[in-house]
Every structure is written in C-alpha cells, then in structure tokens.
Amino acid sequence: MGVLIKTHPIDVDGVDRDTTLLIIPQDDPPKYEAEMEPRLKKRNRSCCVLTVILCLLTILTVHFLILPNSYPSTLFSNLFSDTPSELDVQSPSIFVSVQVVNYETNILSVDSPDDSEVDHPDRSSEDVLVEALLLAMLQEAKESFDAEEAKEKRKEVESKGSRNIKDDVDDDILTPEDNDAAEVESNAVCSTMADDDRFDCLPQGDISEASCMARGCCWNQRSSVQMVNGTVKLGLPACFYPYKYPTYRLENYKETANGFEGTLQRSKDAKDIYPNPINSLRLQVIFDTAQRLHVKITDATKDRYEVPLPVLPGAPFSKPDTTLYDFVVTKEPFSFQVKRKSTGGVLVDTATNTFAFYDQFIQISSLLPSKYIYGLGEHTDAHFLHSVNWKQFTMWTTDIYPNLETPLYGVHPFYFSMEEDGDANGVLLFNSNAMDVILQPTPAITYRTIGGVLDFYFFLGPSPQDVTSQYMELLGKPQMPPYWALGYHLCRWGYGSVENTRKVMERNLAAGIPLDAQWNDIDYMDKNKDFTIDGSKFNGITEFVNEVHAKGLRYVVIVDPGISSAEAPGSYQAYTDGLAMNVFVQNASDQVIEGRVWTGNPQAYPDFTHPNISQYWLKQITDFRKVVPVDGLWIDMNEPSNFVDGSMVGCPKDSSLENPPYLPNIAGKTLNTRTLCMTAKHHAGLHYNLHSTYGIYQAKATQAALLQVFPNKRPFVVSRSTFVGQGQYSAHWTGDESSSWSDLQTSIGDILNFNMFGIPFVGADICGFGDNATEELCLRWHQLGAFYPFSRNHNAVSNRDQDPAAWSPAATEAIRTVLLTRYSLLPYYSTLLFRASISGHTVVRPLFFEFAHDKRTYSIDAQFLIGSSVMLSPVTTPNTTKILAYLPEGRWFDFYSLKKISDKGGEWIELDAPLDKVNVHLREGGIVPMQKPEVTTGKTRQNPIDLVVMLDKTGKACGEVYWDDGEQMDVLQKGDFSLVQFEMKNGKLKSTVVNDKYKDVPAMGSVRVVGLERTVKKVVWNGGEEVDFVFNDHTVMVKVGEMLGKESTVAMEFEMEFF
Predict the structure, then answer these.
(1) How confident is the model over 925-936, as pLDDT tens digits?
(2) Domain of 977: which CATH number?
(3) This prediction's pTM
(4) P-type domain: from which residue to which, for each copy (predicted)?
C-alpha cells in the first residue's frame, strides 16, 4: 500500500500548495496504474514487451521447424505464465538467469546466478543453443530499451518548463514508473550508454576493470585515453558512471528570505572511493541579484576552508523581485539546473551522477549549453575558444615556462559560455585548492578539487559584456593605472650595469621611440637579494633614476618574495626585520620554512596574510626608495616559486596534505614541486589551501605600501601570479613567453581571457622573453603589442637585444610608427580603462562581444577589438604580406585613410600587410577620441583632442571621452574628473558634459565625420554661425580648435549641424 507523507506548504503562483511525497511498493503497481497513467503512457512499455514476445515467437517457430521436439515444454509456461518465473540456461559462453514479468512497470531484469543454482542434466546442445539465441534477443531488446529509457529521461528533464525549485519539489513524487526507471537506469547495460554520457569514474590509479567494478561503475574497454610520455592524455573513459549512481539526497528543504537551503544526505549505497567522505552537506541557494545566482555546498557539521581574499559581498537580505534565472532541483540523486527564463535554455545541469564530497576530493559535473567555452585560466591554449574534446585545465599557480595545457602562474576557475542563440553566461567556482577542470564533447564540464567547498556563482548576462560586468561587480572592479603606465615600457634581464641600461634607453630616445618607463630586472640587486643594489655594476643608480625622471619618464624594478636567510645575523635588514616581526611562513614544526630561488642560498618567504605584513613590507619599500626612488614595483616569482621541492629539508612524508588521495595534473606530479610544503603554515591557514592566493595577497600588500609611499597616487604594481579578483590590486603580464610565432599568436587569447577575468591592464612580453627574436618577429610583435593594454618589451639574459633601436633602421622606423599610433589612441584607452573601473567593461575584447549573434566570430582569435570601435588584424605568421581578415556586420573604415572598405560587413576580405603596416579598422557607429602623438604620455596629454565620428547607415554614432589628472587614486570616489559624451544623429553632432569637476582638460581639436551619404554644403555651430569645413570623399572635417581659439575645450557642450 502507499504511504502519504505531507510536508510544509509553499506558495506557487500565489496559491498555497502542499508538497507531497507518495511512496508506493514495487510489488503492487496495478493498484496505482490509473493514478500514474500520464507517465505510463509516456513510456508505453507494453509496446516494448510485445516487441520482445514477437521476436521470441519468430525464433521459436524457426526452431521447431528445424529441430522438432527438441525444445523443453517448460519454456512457454515460463514465458507466458501469470507468475514471474525463472528460465535458467547454461552454455559454454552464456550463463544468465532471465526473469520475465508481464506487467508494464517492470519489463525484465538480467541477473547472474551462482554456479551452484544451475542443474540441467537432460538438456541437449540444441536446447542450449536455442535458449542462448533467446537470451541474446532478450539482451538486445533490453539494451535497446535501456538506451531509449535513458534518452527519454534526459529529454524529460530538459523539456520541463521554466520552473523554480518550489515547483520541482511539488512534482517530486515517487511512483511505480519512477521506481522502475531507477531500476532500469541503475542496472542499465553499460555498453548501451552513449559516448556523450560517459563521465570518468576512475581518473587516477589502477585503471582496470576490477578497480572500476569496485567503484560500482561501468566498464567498456573501448576508450581513447592514452599514455603519452608517461602522462595520461584524456579521452573517452573506459570506466564511467552508470545512470542513477548513488550520491546524495536532498532533505530538510526550506525556503529562506533570500533563496533556499537544505541538507544533502549521502546515500547509504554510495561507494567509499576516497578517505573521509562527508555524509551530511549543507546546500545554500542564494538569489544574489536579478542576474547572479549563488549556490554553495559545504560540510553541514563543521567549518571548512573558504577562500579569504578577495572578500566578496555578503548575501542579500531578500530575493530580488525578478530574476533572469530559474533554479530547479532533483532530490535523489541530488542534482540541480540553472535555466534562463527568457528562453527556457538549460545553462547548468548537474544530473550527471558524478557528485562526490570527501575531505580531500570534491567532484561535480554539469552539462553545458554549448561547445563555445572560454576562460579557465591561466593556461596557454592553442586557441582562445577551447576545444571540448577531453581538455583538462589544472588550477594551481606554477612557476613554469608557458606550454600548452599546463598550469601557469594564475588561477581563475571561471568559464565563459556563448549559447546557441547568442546569449552569454559565466560560471565561477570560488575555490583556491588544487583542481582539475575537464571539458568533454557532451558538451560537459567536470570539476575535481582537493579541498575547500563548492562555491558557485552563475552570471546570466545576457550579453557578453553583461557577464564580465556582473563578474567584476562581485569580485571587485579593476584599479585604474596611472596615466604614464599607458605608455611604452622598456626592460630586459641582462642589462648587467647601470651604464648599459642608460645606453639602451638613450639609443631608443635618440631614434624617436615613444617611451614612458625604463625597468631593471634582478641584475640590479646585490647577489639577487631583494631591496639591495649591486654597488659595483649599479653604482650611481640613484643619479640614473633622477635622469630618467628629468626626461619625464618613470622607473620600475623587480622584487621577488624570497628573502635571503643565509646572511650573517644582523647584516641583511629585510631578514632581520622579518624575524623581529614574525612575518615569515613557517613549516609544520613552527620554524621558518626555507627554500631557494635566485640567491642560490636558503631564503624565507614573507607571509602576506600576517597582520604585521603591512608594516614590514612598507618598511622595506620605504627604506629602498631612499636609495632608488622607484615609481612602481614588479612582483615576480610569487606563485610562490621555489627551486627545491617543498623546503631545504623536505616535507613531512606521512601527511595527506603532501600526498593527497587524488592529485590534480600538477607539473612535477607532487603538490610541492617548485613551491613550498603543503604543511607550511600561514597566519590565515595552511599552504595546502592558500598556495594559489599568494600572489593576490602580495599584490594587495604592495599596493597598500605604495599608497603610503605616494599618498593618494595610483600605485603601479605588475604581478606574475594572479587569482580571481586581483585586478583591483595589480596589473599582469603573461610571464615567460618564448620568442616564437606560436607564442605571439597565443598571446592574443591570453590578453582576451584576462580582460574577461577582470584584469584588463595586461600584456605579454613584446618580442618574447626566452630565446632570440628575429627582426621580422619582433617587428610584427610590436605591431600587435603596441595595442596591448599594457605594452612592454622584455627579454632574458644572454639573448640578443630586442629593443626597437637594436634593429635595422627600417624596422626601427616601423616600430616607432606603430607606437606613435598607440600614443594617438591614449585618450581612447584611458576612457576604456575608466569604463572598466566604473562599469566592469573590457578594454580589449573578442569580436563576439560586439557581434554575439554571428557565430563566425566565436572562433576568431587572430583579430580583436579595442573597445567597441577599433579592430586590430595583426600578422601572426612569418613571411606574410597579405592576411585574410573577417569584417563583422556593418560598415568598416580604414584607420589611416578613413576610407570605407566595407559597406555591409559579414565577410572575409584579403588585406595587404606589408612589413611597415598593421591593419587597423574603425567600426560604424562609434566616436573615437584621439590626440597627436608625442614621445611621452605627458607630452601627448598636452595636445588637443580630435574626434573621429564613424556614421552607421542611419547616420548615427556615439562615444565619450574621460579625463582626469592621471594620478589620483580616489578620483572616481571624489568625482574629480571630466566626462563628455558625444552623439550624432539626424545630421547633428551634440556633446553633453556629464561631469566637469576636473578643469585642466585639453582643448578641442578637429572633428572628422566619415561615412556621410551626401555632400555637405554648410556646417552650423550651436544653431547660428556657419563655420569653415573641408569636405572630401564622404568625410567632413571641422577644425574646432582653430575656430574657437582659447575658448576651445573638450569639456564644453556644443551642437554642430551638417547640411
């Protein structure tokens, strides 16, 4: 009989409804057949039974004609009796027991009996053969049924309307059909499971059938997993989860003021695969905003490590009135969906049977809405658009040369997805522990992390730019850099002396190369020790830095985190101070942990989570600036790097922290490879948890120190290691790129990813860091790198010089030209960085950000947009003087000549690309502010602002210009800036001053309007006076500055009408 369990009432569509759970015995289905009729009709299992019976009758008929009197008379009674019975069959190759049931809700099941239960002394070989054929038919029918059943279950889930969790709980009724589905799915013949539904059940260890069966999973040796040079290359797994694999059940569900919560109870049938399973979990579903959903799963009984930095906003007190999403939950096995309300599209669906939560192994998988996946940094990938063909991304900050598919310097477990209809969404797992993220062709994603909690944030967009804005709204918007940082930077490891540094700088200034900052790498230090100077080779550095400042340039040096601990007591102040303030990371025995990096001797590591770190780090920087008045700091090796594994004396060997039960795909195959012991202690916790946050903690401490050194001035900090949300503390460069065409190409994807990660001030080492650049490579890389938000030339010791003036006069001039192009766009870059800081916008962006409904743009990574109005199409291959570029929909104009090159877009065109030119185009509908370029940002800032107005087909365009002093830190909070917006429509250009608190703004120069469809006969200023203009080839130019003289300013309101 049934048992009715009544739970709390909930409000659905304004009506109170009881949530009910109806539990029905498996052995009494007919009684409830009428009640379940809609679902039973849906399955229509009787048809499947009739099909099986007809197949059996066909075989039996043939058998009796060929082998008369050879078939046991018991067969028909077994097949057609009203009582379930067993037919036992034994042959050399087939040994099963078949149970056939004649009611719809349980068609058949196949089980393996013990040998002792079989006794068939009177059966002939012909009997065995026929019965084996029957069994094969039954098996085939069941496999076909199982596959269809699984497909129907998937379709049923996906076809549910846009419902929220309350509706789903109402419908969570256990029926005969549900019980049957569970049995069919849990006992499904694994070979019938579609390849797309295979999720790896045995990712490490003894990958064998026995190990797989011990986990209760499916085994099919048809697999594409390979061993390449001792490394497992992912592919179709041989061991995979069956349907309805036992995981957790949702209990104690209740609605809260800001969402839902419940308890996840581990199934009693769940397999103990790893040590210390967590049996009771807490589920929190928080409707953060209308566009952002927060889902968190953690231990229900005790606290676990959670990422301490960046500090995220607290949960809201109540749900928003409306949301872009629905949240749907399935109780058992627990899974959830996130749906887009407007389309019903399923963005996240964790019904993959993979969910597991152990102390040091947490796994969850989700189906993806499309194959268009980006992000998941920091890694070097061959393409910006990730392949979903069994791609693995390991999250663990690592000091390593960039190689394809290896974990690099930063951790950003955030993916960005374009949906099939052009909408966009993003998903962040806010977790800093070592982690593998796997993409597979389903398409689907799997997370495996070895600590912390599952802390997911879902961003609904729906536009690509909306997603990044919502992401930065959560994590913190990026800091605006000082204006001088927008200029060109020159650096190398291996100048070797202050004289050579001066020589290289001077030869570039003499060649007319625009330059704003000169840098030095570690060779300025005394024996590579932080906050010291090599008194021999860099004697006179103070005077040199004063010379740099006198030229209007800035000076930046490198600082590594390691502090030498091998010096005589009291002889090295940085170490002496650290001991006195107790700010060094400690080992498991509470002693200062020591590693080794560039000094070649033992070194200590500052604990940037320690309360005393602010005082310590400020003192070191302040004392150093008394000798070398630096303008910014470059923090490197802060993964943190260590040239010995763990420490100088090793790490505890019996700790599960050093040897976890599951090891992500770490370079070196141990967590402590080239870093500290996992048992090392920070003030905020264990290195096991905090490792990948070392860089963001150091960036925050460095920014805070520079703010005290330069009160209310924007600090300039560039960090190699990064974590989510670090854009508010530092810029980033992409590390030790090689001087190769492949690294030039992949750098585009790198800077696009970091703009999506909320660190828009990013760039790669122009010309590459490692190896020797050729002249052609270095020239082409400058034509790309001149448009990076952060533009710096840097290379390694012992390599050839690669600064612009080191090449032939022709190459030097070509580099100079493209750098001047960058400087002409400085007002545009500054305005974009303002928008990034205030609205979370990207500075450079992929084409699909502006053309989301054009799928041809989804895979393009050899071109990119600067803002919404400028497109770069660089040369990325050697010996190339023509390129094929894609022009998306709309009108496009050549940057240099302003001539229209496409009237409709949506086409590939061939472009000339001689060595001295990079292709830059302007997009219809935008207004771009520019200035005449000079050799420094300071000098360029003094020139008037020119506007280039690119009309669309309807004669409209819009844009803006932002201006401040280029230095104040709190300029946005105080509103001490000017912001002017421009709009043109109906033949009239109008400016609107949004804010004008900052008065020292440039004059207005010229206004050029391109794309006019008619001849301009007169131009009227502010509704009255006719003004002079020049009209030529669909372009009109008005020299506003000459017309108004000293009254001309960019922060003025005006109207200019064209007749």
Answers:
(1) 999 999 999 999
(2) 2.60.40.1180
(3) 0.85
(4) 188-243
